[in-house]
Amino acid sequence: MADLLRRVAEQADPGAFRELYQLYGPRVKAYMMRQGADAATAEDLAQETLLTVWRRAALYMEDKGSAATWIFAIARNLRIDRLRRETPWQELPEGRAEPPSCEALPDEALAEKQRQARVRAALAALPPEQHEVVALAYLEGLSHGEIARRLRLPLGTVKSRMRIAYQKIRAGLEDLK
Fold first, then answer.
1. Are residue 13 and residue 71 in the same domain, yes or no?
2. How does the average pLDDT of the chain come out, rounded?
3. Residue 152: DSSP 8-state
4. Among residues 111, 8, 103, 106, which one has the least CA distance to residue 50?
5. Residue 78 and residue 8 in one domain
6. Whole domain around residue 147: which residue ranges?
7. Are residues 74 and 11 in the same domain?
8. Which of 9, 11, 28, 69 would be 57's cystine partner, CB 3.0–4.6 Å?
9. What's the alpha-carbon Rg for the chain, to the nearest Å?
10. Quick one: which H or E segment has residue 101?
């Protein structure tokens, strides 16, 4: 085998190359098909491999490995190069593309509705004075000082009601994290 490569490299002997092609062409094609290539692609890669062998036969070094190992390494590298060049994503034909849905998935929508119902229930379970300060803070966006002025309460009372309300809400919704 090394003798065939030497004749191809030194003399550009077409007869030696033909013999090399007949010996390794079917083997390389079968290797490519085992790697997942279709028959046409495997044939192309086998031809490309042996063409590369023809061009680079002078680079083969017998002490580095067998001729078969060298040829199959070339085939493997060409297959990898082909896979890298292939486009993994293809656009749909005209008129087939649809914009992604903005709606939540059904299970996510159901989970969100359940969370909202639990939060509403936790807020409804608060005593009226605690519910009022939480509603003013989160629904109207008022600060603690503004709530105290509106309700004519001391600031400390507003903060205490808010803290107690948070603790009750947190306890009721602890498993929703």
1. yes
2. 87
3. T
4. 8
5. yes
6. 106-176
7. yes
8. 9
9. 38
10. none
Task: Determine the pLDDT at residue 148.
Answer: 95
The pLDDT value recorded for residue 102 is 81
Asked if residue 101 belongs to a domain, the reply is no
Are 157 and 127 contained in the same domain? yes
Same domain, 81 and 8: yes
pLDDT at residue 168, as a whole number: 92
Give the rounded distance of the alpha carbon of 115 from its chain centre: 30
- pLDDT (tens digit, 9 = 90+) per residue, 52-110? 988 888 888 888 888 889 899 999 999 999 888 887 777 777 777 777 778 878 888 88
What confidence tens digit (pLDDT) does each residue in 129-147 have?
999 999 999 888 999 999 9
How many CB atoms are located within 10 Å of the residue 57 CB?
22
Q: Is 109:102 a contact under the CB 8 Å cutoff?
A: no
91 domain-assigned? no
Greater pLDDT, 40 or 60: 40
Helix (H) or strand (E) holding 59: none
The reply to whether 92 falls in a domain is no
Task: Kindly state the greatest CA–CA separation across the chain.
Answer: 106
DSSP assignment letter at 16: H
CATH assignment of the domain containing 63:
1.10.1740.10
8 A C-beta contact, residue 138 and residue 123: no
**Number of helices (H), then strands (E), in the chain:** 8, 0
pLDDT score, position 177: 62
Give residue 80's Cα distance to chain centre.
20
